[in-house]
């Protein structure tokens, strides 16, 4: 009887582990992971390039090849863009656009880049 119980428990454990593994895209974004686990090293443009924070519209290779010694991209911005990329399953350019629009909305700026202030006067 003990062998049968062990078999049943093992079977259900493997079955549930397999189901969780196959459906991880649906639930993994809800688990909060501390940010220090994955990114402890100070960032440079070379690290940003390796992490995938580049595209044809936002090219960092010029910074790397010219030997730019600055610290790289903003850590908070990269964290938010990475979060958008994972949760919405979009590429870097789309995540960067969504992040920028979110920052614009927070500062009362429209998606077109113009302030939403009713007193705003523009001379073009």
Describe this structure in words.
The structure is a single chain. By secondary structure, this protein is mainly α. 52% of the residues lie in helices and 0% in strands. The protein is built from 6 helices and no strands. It has helices at 2-22, 24-27, 45-50, 61-65, 75-88, 92-106. α5 (75-88) crosses α6. It is elongated, with a radius of gyration of 22 Å. 6% of the residues are buried.
From the structure above, extract its key features.
single chain; 124 residues; mainly alpha; 52% helix; elongated
Secondary structure layout plus pairing:
Blueprint (H helix, E strand, L loop, with lengths): L1 H21 L1 H4 L17 H6 L10 H5 L9 H14 L3 H15 L18
Helix pairs in contact: 5-6
Q: N-to-C SSE series?
A: HHHHHH
Radius of gyration: 22 Å
Q: Which ranges are low-confidence, i.e. pLDDT below 50, for 5 or more consecutive residues?
A: none
How many helices? The count is 6
The helical percent reads: 40-55%
Compact summary:
This protein has 124 residues and is mainly alpha-helical.
């Amino acid at each position: 009887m003990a062998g049968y119980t062990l078999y049943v428990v093992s079977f259900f454990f493997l079955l549930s582990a397999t189901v969780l593994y196959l459906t991880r895209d649906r639930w993994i974004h809800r688990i909060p992971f501390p940010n220090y686990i994955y990114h402890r090293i100070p960032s440079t443009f070379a690290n940003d390039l390796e992490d995938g924070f580049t595209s044809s519209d936002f090219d960092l290779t010029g910074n790397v090849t010219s030997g730019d010694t600055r610290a790289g991209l903003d850590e908070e911005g990269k964290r938010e863009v990475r979060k958008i990329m994972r949760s919405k399953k979009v590429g870097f350019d789309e995540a960067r656009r969504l992040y920028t629009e979110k920052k614009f909305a927070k500062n009362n700026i429209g998606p077109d880049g113009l302030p939403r202030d009713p007193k705003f006067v523009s001379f073009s």
